[in-house]
Amino acid sequence: MSNAIYDIAIVGGGIIGLSTAFQLQREIPHLKIIIFEKEDQLAKHQTGRNSGVIHSGLYYKPDSFRAKNCVRGRKLLVDFAKLNNINFDICGKLVVAKNEIEVKELERLRLNGERNGLKGLAILSEKEAQKIEPYIRASKALLVPEAGIIDYKEVVKKLAHNIESINPNSRILRSCKVLNYQNMNIQTTLGDFSAKHIVFCGGLFSDRLAKKDNLKTNMQIVGFRGDYYKLSERARHKVNNLVYPVPNPEFPFLGVHFTRMIDGNIECGPNAVFTFKREGYSKYSFSFKDTLEALSYKGTRRLFINHWKFGLNEYKRAFSKSLFLNQLREIMPNLSKEDIVSGKTGVRAMALSIEGDIIDDFKIMRNRNNIHVLNAPSPAATACLAIGEHIMKQTCINFNL
């Protein structure tokens, strides 16, 4: 058991937990902060398995917490990357419309992005779009100059270094799972610790951590796995930067898209399928507890009933390279089976209401002396420093730090 009493304990060593700790430590350098990460490395789950995109703020409802934090977070992230010599590239992206219905949606997206403060948005003809991405097929495309790419694992590494540099009395514990907590006492697999306040950034397990803290959330986390392919070496030249389809407005997924990674690889994906294990990265991963909890929740069943056709098509693509390829060919017709090879997988924490509605905005709640980040969907990685800034301010105000 640690004899030290920490000012703040943070549960979760992903990008939200580290950004929160960084903003708190920078604002109040004398704070003693301890971070608990159950894995042997930081950013092992959602942070380390996302697409590496710096989102612009194009899609989100104006004045929503998501929109405001994405736009501010993007600026903070770029500044942090410059200061800490993290490789990034504001390369821009194209959102590709295949027909007249989608062309109308491009105009709506452009107006939405402008309301969120984006600059330089422009609707391009097919010829104009092909000057940027020669292999795409498009009726028209929306140019989004402020989108980019970065390595979020590297961001987390630099955040951790900054936290420990500002205050050597702060600690980051890996392979340390939080088992229980009551008042100031936190029980972990590495012993007991004491902290005046806890900030929970548990990602895929945010709802379970909230229940342990007796917080009523009116939501539950359900995992959705995303499978990626990547372009083979011979086909990498077919994508220069970022190419997205027009998203389905009914879902928070952005559709199967092409993403140039900071290491030069080109990812294609992801799909979105219900996973039978919250941290299940294989098509055959299974947890009885996770499955029972998800399927016994009324919100999950309602989501499946309302969108069974979408779900069925996603599952078919998960087990068929040909169907996945067909989806990619809708915006890049000359791809062949040999052009794509299996890539990584990730699991997204989807917050569902009991009515089966997807909670698409960030959701952060206070519970007595603690704060819970209950829902942080994309673009949470882009917005990480803005979210951390928000939590820092709320912590300082509510807890008189």
What would you say this structure looks like, in words?
The chain has 401 residues and is of the alpha+beta class. It folds into 3 domains: 5-48 and 152-219 and 360-399, FAD/NAD(P)-binding domain (3-Layer(bba) Sandwich), CATH 3.50.50; 93-145, no CATH class; 220-358, D-Amino Acid Oxidase, Chain A, domain 2, CATH 3.30.9. It is 32% helix and 26% strand. It contains 11 helices and 20 strands. The strands form 3 sheets. Strands 5, 6, 7, 13, 14, 15, 16, 17 and 18 form a 9-stranded mixed sheet that branches. It is globular, with a radius of gyration of 21 Å. It starts with a strand and ends with a helix. The model has no long low-confidence stretch (mean pLDDT 95).
Structural topology:
Blueprint: E1 5-11, H1 15-27, E2 33-36, E3 53-54, H2 65-83, E4 88-89, E5 93-97, H3 100-115, E6 122-125, H4 126-132, E7 140-144, E8 148-150, H5 152-166, E9 171-173, E10 178-182, E11 185-188, E12 191-200, H6 206-212, E13 220-231, E14 242-245, E15 257-260, E16 266-269, E17 273-274, H7 288-295, H8 298-306, H9 308-318, H10 321-329, E18 340-352, E19 363-367, E20 370-375, H11 384-399
Parallel strand pairs: 1-2, 1-12, 2-9, 5-14, 12-20
Antiparallel strand pairs: 3-8, 4-8, 5-7, 6-7, 10-11, 11-12, 13-16, 13-17, 13-18, 14-15, 15-16, 19-20
